[in-house]
Amino acid sequence: MSKLILMSTAFAVVATVAGAGERVTYTVGDAQFDGYVAQAENPRGTIVILPTWNGLSDYEMDRAQMLADLGFTTFAADLYPAGQQPKTMEARQTGLQAVTSDQERMHEILTAAINEARKHGAEPLLVMGYSMGALVAMELAWSGLGNELEVDAYAIFSGRVSVGQGRILPDGVAPFFVAIGDSDERVPVSTLVNFTDDVDLAGGSLTAHTYAGAGHLFSAFGFPNYNEGADQQSWEDYSAFLDDFSE
What we know:
This protein is α/β, with parallel strands linked by helices. It has a single domain, classed as Alpha/Beta hydrolase fold, catalytic domain (Rossmann fold). Helix content is 36%, strand content 23%. The chain has helices at 58-69, 89-101, 103-120, 132-143, 145-148, 191-201, 228-245, and strands at residues 3-8, 22-28, 31-38, 46-50, 73-81, 125-130, 153-157, 176-181, 206-211. Strands 1-9-8-7-6-4-5-3-2 form a nine-stranded mixed beta sheet, sandwiched between helices. Mean pLDDT is 91; it is low at 5-18.
């Protein structure tokens, strides 16, 4: 049964966390990709973070450490080959197109990232993403690759969920957590309505939250639309979802 929550109260301030994780690389064909592992002390699961179109940054590494502090060994995986992170807006748009337009290559990257994460952590495994990373995480779900790779849950922050491209979510799709700002101009909240139906048809579970006054990437500290209150509330909502996920 899907649960659509159209408003959450925003309050308080979240602090960033500097971690002492481990930088690693993973391989896709002949290409090397950068990653970062934050190891939980007493792991209760593993999380893969897929980054924004900026590529792997301090933001994703800080989040990885925050999740490790919650008990989840976390692998933040760049989606660009090492040394190819875009530096300009035009390059980011080109990078987004390169990552999302080649479905076969995207599947290879996702498979390699998840396999690398499993080398460092324990089951169950959740894949989460921010903006571009969220779009890529949704490809796991829509394509059925997530089922093949035994992904146990998805977390989508500021990402478009209705990207089925005529596909139907596979039966047995893992549960979703979705967090979107109600002022997001790139990802309309209205897309959640159809997605709720899609999840129901697949017999899946959806927990979705929207946050008042929050724009795109509202939870990314250091980014232009960062909203402290919405970030804090979404982290509490996500933490509650993770508690249920790891039971």
